[in-house]
């Protein structure tokens, strides 16, 4: 075994550099400028993760006539009464401050109305036009400005460093640090820290078709589960209806063609050219993401498909010039990949987009383990059964900032570094070393098997029989991964080793998604059980908590605390009333 | 089959030839992925978003710097051949991967860091989209910091002090930003040592920018401001 471990010490260690990680760095430094802060990220700082990829925008109740209460109610109703209400409330309140911080302190410039005020667009599932945006590339504006500020700070940057294990204190008093691989050298590094933020961005990349950036593989969730934390709402995987289909072994496959195309009047046609969505819902293509995804999936199951196995999106009836003008980014992207979106037909398929579920933590982002904090897509509870478009980047930036403040406060009260549990470091290294020394075998074929099982059996339409068979298939596939060897030698920037490690995390979390899907015997939001097609009584809504070791997962139905509003009630009858107290 | 020559090694190394199956909708990123997955498990390359927003995957393709996730093979191939090398003017890590840290250092040198003139407790300022200064800023703002322009620039390749097109483009957007608290300081830095004065106006940055920005226009604008002074911007 490779025994050389490079050890460093810092005050705050942040894993991830999307909206959550970078805001945490900024706010921790603002709260206490003396803190030594280290950002470790699997790719380049500010360039990996999905905040940068945000097309839609940022929901915020700042316009006349809108209110935090209305934003909150949309979030709760959209989440099918499953969100953790105090977290959703905090999201809606703090979004207002955060958007002003982005504009005024970081220098973002979002689109304006003709009078110079912020333009806010309509987005599905919302009762008010509240989505602040920068064209259809909002994420670039946000992350570029964030990067610029963080790059100007004195912080330690560990780029292309992948975390492989959260290391507890020897005395069990909390977290002591994180074990990482320096991907550029292929060596191990242990960072001792007083506080750690897990903001690695989850990402449902275990499905045949998926949208997130290539660095995402649920590493944070898998590490948290091993560390002993509980996850919630893991059955809630949002599928976006229109992912680009590019054919076998193309990285472009699964990436999102934006919602606005359907909103503007785009048609979805099956393999025979029939406009099928009218057969499923009165709103046809303009129905919500989950309904359209199910409609497309049903056509695929019936075999009414295009040559590459999806359906077509067609915009030409709106006038190719008009389409090019309204959706320049999408038209250009399709053209670069060889497709004519403005004048022809482009093949699309539903694609796994976002995990509403994640690690359980408090509204201050603190996990159950002292010193360990969670923010962004790694955190569960804010969105419940469905995330509204425009609440994702809000979640990352709001809770990232809160995490920075919480970590600074935690360190003020707990200034000592903890002694690490050496045994867990050794286990972490042993896990990463496992493939070396065995006979190299074909990794892509195994990845394809996982993709297919998750897509067919734990995807858009689920039932007990398929989910049960998925459990045994995934278990067998995971065993095969453990038996696969990798050629040793060049460990610096060895992507195949990291593919193997990615798949370890994906197998772990695929098992969690499957277990949680089996445990939820109803249908709501992103989760649809063909054998339990109804939502049932909202007043007895429970969320599914999953914990335990990955081979002995324990699921538990926990009643949702309607601490702010109960099913059947609303906060927006009297908007002038005092905001509700948070729980 | 497609013939691909890929640089293997760091500063010392060699081109190795591979053959990759042709597919209908193939990008250069798909080609290197195919080689890594099925032929050379330890081939080093970098990518993240797959859709042209993160600027992680750029490399030199048949002699020109390009984003690879959005470069269709049919558009960049020379006969039946692809030659792939790391971006020039950056320290090399291995194979097709370079270290972009020095590139980001240049941004600080150009004064390209926004300084606030208001706080999170203030309403966003009213600025209209047809404000001329804002139009200047907007034209250059959607940079994905992929370093293609930096790699394309001949001045960068011989003058280690030159800040380069990307950092100066950001400086240009900032001196046009009414909300930026240090417009004058940014202008002075952009005009200072290694700044706009070093640009030879060859336009390689603009010709190669994958998102269609024009750093040359920004640099020309900064030079104009040097002569005429900063224009007034709509007061926030």
**What is the CATH homologous superfamily assignment of the largest domain in chain B?**
Alpha-helical ferredoxin
How helical, in percent, are the residues of chain A?
25-40%
Q: What gap, in angstroms, lies between the N and C termini of chain A?
A: 50 Å
Helix- and strand-based class of chain B? alpha+beta
CATH superfamily of the domain at 437-558 in chain A: Fumarate reductase/succinate dehydrogenase flavoprotein-like, C-terminal domain
Tally of extended strands of chain A?
A: 18
Word description of this protein:
The complex is a heterodimer of chains A (583) and B (236). In chain A, the strands form four sheets. In chain A, strands 1, 2, 6, 7, 8, 9 and 16 form a seven-stranded mixed sheet that branches. Chain A has a four-stranded antiparallel sheet with strand order 15-10-17-18, with helices on one face. In chain A, strands 11-14-13-12 form a four-stranded antiparallel sheet, with helices on one face. Chain A has helices spanning 19-31, 68-78, 85-104, 138-151, 219-227, 260-263, 289-302, 320-326, 328-336, 392-413, 422-433, 443-457, 464-483, 495-519, and strands at residues 5-15, 37-41, 58-59, 120-121, 131-132, 156-159, 161-168, 175-182, 187-198, 231-232, 237-244, 267-269, 311-314, 345-355, 358-359, 372-374, 542-549, 552-559. The longest helix of chain A is centred in the last third of the chain and has 25 residues, at 495-519. Chain A has 583 residues and is of the alpha+beta class. Chain A is globular. In chain A, helix 1 (19-31) links the parallel strand 1 and strand 2. Among the domains of chain A are: 240-351, Succinate dehydrogenase/fumarate reductase flavoprotein, catalytic domain (Flavocytochrome C3, Chain A, domain 1, Alpha-Beta Complex); 437-558, Fumarate reductase/succinate dehydrogenase flavoprotein-like, C-terminal domain (Methane Monooxygenase Hydroxylase, Chain G, domain 1, Up-down Bundle). Chain A starts with a strand and ends in a 24-residue tail after the last strand. With 236 residues, chain B is of the alpha+beta class. Chain B folds into two domains: 2-98, Roll (Ubiquitin-like (UB roll)); 101-228, Orthogonal Bundle (Fumarate Reductase Iron-sulfur Protein, Chain B, domain 2), CATH 1.10.1060. Chain B is built from ten helices and seven strands. Chain B has helices spanning 28-38, 73-76, 101-109, 132-140, 148-152, 154-158, 165-175, 183-191, 204-208, 215-228, and strands at 2-9, 13-20, 59-61, 64-66, 81-85, 92-94, 97-98. Chain B has a five-stranded mixed sheet. In chain B, strands 6-7 form a two-stranded antiparallel sheet. In chain B, a hairpin with a 2-residue loop joins strand 6 and strand 7. The longest helix of chain B is centred in the C-terminal third of the chain and has 14 residues, at 215-228. The model of chain B has no long low-confidence stretch (mean pLDDT 94). At the A-B interface, helix 3, helix 4 and helix 14 of A face helix 1, helix 3 and helix 4 of B.
């Amino acid at each position: 075994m490779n025994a050389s471990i490079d050890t460093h010490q810092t005050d705050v260690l942040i894993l991830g550099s999307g909206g959550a990680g970078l805001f945490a760095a900024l706010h921790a430094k603002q709260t206490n400028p003396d803190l030594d802060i280290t950002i470790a990220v699997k790719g380049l700082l500010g360039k990996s993760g999905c905040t940068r990829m945000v097309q839609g925008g940022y929901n915020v109740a700042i316009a006349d006539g809108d209110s935090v209460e209305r934003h909150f109610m949309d979030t709760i109703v959209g989440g099918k009464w499953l969100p953790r209400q105090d977290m959703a409330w905090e999201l809606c309140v703090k979004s207002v401050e955060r958007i002003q911080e982005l504009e005024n302190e970081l220098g973002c410039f979002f689109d304006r109305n003709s009078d110079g005020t912020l333009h806010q667009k309509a987005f599905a599932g919302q009762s008010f036009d509240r989505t602040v945006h920068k064209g259809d590339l909002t994420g670039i504006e946000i992350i570029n400005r964030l990067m610029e500020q963080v790059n100007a700070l004195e912080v330690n940057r560990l780029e292309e460093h992948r975390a492989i294990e959260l290391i507890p204190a020897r005395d069990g008093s909390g977290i002591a640090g994180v074990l990482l691989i320096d991907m550029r050298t292929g060596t191990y590094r242990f960072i001792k820290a007083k506080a750690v933020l897990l903001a690695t961005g989850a990402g449902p990349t275990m499905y045949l078709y998926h949208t997130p950036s290539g660095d995402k593989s649920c590493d944070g969730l898998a590490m948290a589960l091993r560390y002993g934390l509980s996850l919630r709402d893991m059955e809630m995987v949002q599928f976006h209806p229109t992912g680009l289909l590019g054919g076998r072994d193309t990285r472009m496959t699964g990436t999102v063609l934006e919602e606005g195309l359907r909103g503007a009047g785009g048609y979805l046609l099956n393999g025979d050219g029939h406009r099928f969505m009218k057969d499923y819902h009165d709103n046809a293509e303009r129905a919500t993401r989950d309904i359209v995804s199910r409609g497309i999936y049903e056509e695929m199951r019936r075999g009414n498909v295009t040559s590459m196995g999806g359906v077509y999106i067609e915009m030409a009836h709106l006038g190719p010039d008009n389409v090019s003008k309204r959706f320049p980014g999408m038209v250009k992207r399709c053209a670069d990949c060889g497709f004519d979106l403005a004048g022809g037909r482009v093949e699309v398929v539903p694609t796994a987009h976002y995990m509403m579920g994640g690690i359980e933590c408090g509204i201050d982002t603190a996990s159950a383990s002292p010193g360990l904090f969670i923010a962004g897509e790694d955190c569960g509870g804010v969105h419940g059964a469905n995330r509204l478009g425009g609440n994702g980047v809000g979640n990352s930036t709001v809770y990232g900032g809160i995490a920075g403040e919480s970590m600074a406060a935690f360190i003020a009260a707990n200034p000592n570094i903890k002694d690490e549990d050496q045994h867990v470091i050794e286990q972490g290294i042993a896990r990463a070393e496992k493939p070396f020394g065995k006979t190299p075998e074909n990794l892509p074929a195994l990845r394809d098997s996982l993709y297919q099982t998750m897509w067919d059996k734990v995807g858009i339409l689920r039932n007990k029989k398929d989910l049960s068979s998925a459990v045994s298939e995934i278990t067998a596939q995971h065993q095969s991964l453990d038996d696969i060897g990798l050629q040793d030698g060049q460990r610096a920037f060895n992507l195949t080793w990291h593919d193997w490690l990615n798949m370890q995390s994906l197998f772990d979390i695929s098992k969690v998604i499957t277990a949680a899907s089996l445990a939820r015997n109803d249908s709501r939001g992103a989760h649809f059980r063909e054998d339990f097609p109804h939502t049932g009584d909202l007043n007895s809504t429970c969320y599914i908590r999953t914990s335990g070791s990955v081979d002995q997962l324990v699921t538990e139905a926990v009643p949702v605390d309607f601490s702010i509003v109960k099913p059947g009630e609303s906060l927006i009858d009297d908007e002038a009333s005092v905001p509700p107290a948070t729980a | 089959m497609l013939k691909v020559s890929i640089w293997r090694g760091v500063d010392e190394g060699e081109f190795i030839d591979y053959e990759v199956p042709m597919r209908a909708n193939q990008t250069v990123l798909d080609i290197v992925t195919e080689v890594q997955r099925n032929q050379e498990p330890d081939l080093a390359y970098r990518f993240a978003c797959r859709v042209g927003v993160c600027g992680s995957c750029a490399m030199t393709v048949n002699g020109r710097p390009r984003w690879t996730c959005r470069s269709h093979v049919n558009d960049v191939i020379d006969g039946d051949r692809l030659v792939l090398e790391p971006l020039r003017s950056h320290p090399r890590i291995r194979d097709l991967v370079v270290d972009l840290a020095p590139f980001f250092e240049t941004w600080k040198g150009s004064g390209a860091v926004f300084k606030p003139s208001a706080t999170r407790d203030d309403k966003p300022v009213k600025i209209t989209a047809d404000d001329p200064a804002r139009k200047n800023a907007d034209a250059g703002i959607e940079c994905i910091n992929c370093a293609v322009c930096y790699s394309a620039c001949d001045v960068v390749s011989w003058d280690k002090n030159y800040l380069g097109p990307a950092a100066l483009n950001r400086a240009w957007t900032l001196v046009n930003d009414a909300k930026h608290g240090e417009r004058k300081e940014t202008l002075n830095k952009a005009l200072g040592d290694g700044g706009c004065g070093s640009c030879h106006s060859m336009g390689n940055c603009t010709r190669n920018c994958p998102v269609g920005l024009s750093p040359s226009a920004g640099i020309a604008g900064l030079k104009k401001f040097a002569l005429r002074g900063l224009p007034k911007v709509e007061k926030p």
